[in-house]
Design goal:
binds ligand SHN; 3 domains; alpha/beta; binds 1,4-dihydronicotinamide adenine dinucleotide
Length: about 220
Amino acid sequence: MAYELPVMLNCEGRLCLIIGGGKVAERKASALREAGARLRVISPLLKSARLAEWADDGSIEWKARAYREGDLNGAFLVHAATDAPDVNAKIAADADRLGILVNVASEGSSGSFTNPAVLRRGRLTVAIATSGAGPMASVTIKEQLEHQFGEEYEAYLDFLYRMRTAIKDEVELPEQRRRLLHKLYRLDILEEIRRGDNANAPWDPDRIKQWIEQNREE
Ligand SMILES: C[C@@]1(CC(=O)O)c2cc3[nH]c(cc4nc(cc5[nH]c(cc(n2)[C@H]1CCC(=O)O)[C@@](C)(CC(=O)O)[C@@H]5CCC(=O)O)C(CC(=O)O)=C4CCC(=O)O)c(CCC(=O)O)c3CC(=O)O
Ligand SMILES: NC(=O)C1=CN([C@@H]2O[C@H](COP(=O)(O)OP(=O)(O)OC[C@H]3O[C@@H](n4cnc5c(N)ncnc54)[C@H](O)[C@@H]3O)[C@@H](O)[C@H]2O)C=CC1
């Protein structure tokens, strides 16, 4: 078995195409909207009500026709999400020729990327893929992880982000930076957040500065 390479794609402002306008197209569109992509859907009709809504309010562009060669020019990535496997296969071949990332809904292994099930807690992303064992296995495992990684992780990662940014801004010496970052990840802030202490004693910029001053020397 060859393992696939997990990556995080920055789709912000990039043109992403979805060929097809059904349930699967809607799911892929929804994820790409959250990622800030510029979205174009090509499909003779939109079977998904949400896709139709987004086309109406202009948040996605809809071309009401079947796929044709040339549609892929200028795209960052494409989802082949029609219910016609031969059309999806043609899209995959065209995309490969042009060097464009392609996902094939009807036959995952024939595209250049697949979509994991995703658990988000603010800045935390947990992606689960099963290399062919099936998307429902991914979803079940995601549901198990939801209990382990509760809502408090959003506040926790925001805290880590603010601390790390402040350390990078305030501390020049690599040695001190490293020491502070090591101490940062050992702080038991998660427990503080769970107890609700964090709301009473927020880590505002002054307290962060103070912590940096107290901990920068051994
Ligand atoms: C390879 C992959 C390629 C890709 O699409 O990227 C793929 C492929 C296929 N899926 C099929 C079926 C279904 N997929 C779902 C749902 C999801 N599928 C997703 C990912 C992936 N699906 C990639 C592998 C990821 C991994 O490794 O686990 C999720 C996780 C993410 C997402 O789609 O964004 C999302 C859950 C989102 C969530 O809820 O969190 C449902 C349920 C439903 O639709 O409600 C069904 C019906 C039930 C069933 O059949 O199991 C079929 C058969 C189609 C046919 O019958 O023709 C194929 C084709 C094949 O197997 O190659
Ligand atoms: N990867 C996944 O997560 C899943 C994949 N599937 C697969 O994905 C396919 C699509 O599923 P659904 O969205 O439920 O189908 P659907 O039937 O709801 O939608 C298909 C869409 O494709 C459009 N279409 C058909 N021919 C086209 C063409 N030549 N050019 C452009 N658009 C065209 C139709 O107008 C329709 O809007 C299924 O056939 C199945 O093989 C199904 C479930 C989950």
